[in-house]
Design goal:
CATH class of the largest domain: Alpha Beta
Shape: globular
Structural class: alpha/beta
Helix content: 25-40%
CATH architecture of the largest domain: 3-Layer(aba) Sandwich
Number of domains: 2
CATH topology of the largest domain: Rossmann fold
Largest sheet: 5 strands, parallel
Number of helices: 8
Strand order of the largest sheet: 2-1-3-4-5
Low-confidence stretches: 125-134
Number of strands: 11
Oligomer: single chain
Strand content: 15-25%
Mean pLDDT: 84
Length: about 240
């Protein structure tokens, strides 16, 4: 059975060692580095299944490290593990492409629960390859100038790679799964975000919808595909 490989990006040796040992005890294969630069180098050469990422790092901080991971086109789960507990920190984490956010100090049981939830979402029953739904037999979906590789979890616009964060890609995939159907913010939150990290404010959904529109719509102020249904939520009109 394949063991999931977890990259720990933490500059405090005591914390890194404790997480490393705990992951080994749980049957994972951990790697650890102390900087964002070293993390990116590892990701260029080693197949990593999930990243645990501190924010306060020497040199490149965790936010920029996560941003660079996404710019590389890597869609593996990233969980921020940080002592910073402000709402803004969590929002910024989402903005740069993280999938979850765990505040120090934490229990190892909670950490393992978050890791397993993200691995299930990325590679298990929530992943593209295992979804038993109407997208499973479709390799590509095209609308307007956008082409979506459903199984590869990639998108292109006018033939050029469209860099979507994992949240944006899951949003787009959710709308493609239910074209023409109005989805409430609560439904979107429950389907797109981590089961352990639903945003406290449903308006967070609005922010990511806006960012997705900026990438897929020719005129985000007058969307053709991703439309607001006032008082209800959002609807994706695939045939527009």
């Amino acid at each position: 059975m394949k063991k999931d490989r977890i990259l720990i990006v933490e500059d405090e040796p005591a914390i890194a060692d404790a997480i490393f040992d705990g992951l080994q005890d749980e049957g994972f294969v951990p790697e650890k580095v102390g900087s964002g630069e070293d993390a990116l180098a590892i990701l260029d050469n080693v197949q990593i299944d999930l990243v645990l990422l501190d924010i306060r790092l020497p040199g490149m901080d965790g936010y920029e490290t996560c941003r660079q991971i996404r710019l590389k086109g890597l869609h593996l789960p990233v969980i921020f593990v940080s002592a910073r507990d402000e709402v803004l920190d969590r929002v910024v984490g989402l903005e740069v492409g993280a999938d979850d956010y765990l505040v120090k100090p934490f229990s190892f049981r909670e950490l393992f629960s978050r890791i397993k939830a993200q691995l299930r979402r990325a590679y298990g029953e929530f992943s593209t390859g295992n979804d038993q739904n109407s997208l499973e037999n479709r390799d590509n979906i095209v609308f307007g100038s956008i082409a979506v590789d459903v199984k590869g979890m990639r998108a292109r616009k006018n033939g050029e790679d469209l860099f979507l964060t994992p949240i944006e890609m899951r949003l787009l995939r959710l709308f493609l799964e239910y074209p023409g159907q109005v989805l409430s913010r609560e439904q979107i939150m429950n389907q797109v975000w981590s089961e352990n990290w639903n945003p406290d404010d449903p308006k967070t959904v609005n922010v990511h919808i806006r960012h997705l529109r900026e990438k897929i719509e020719e005129n985000p102020a007058e969307p053709v595909y991703l439309k607001t249904v006032r008082g209800y939520g959002y609807r994706f009109d695939l045939q527009s």
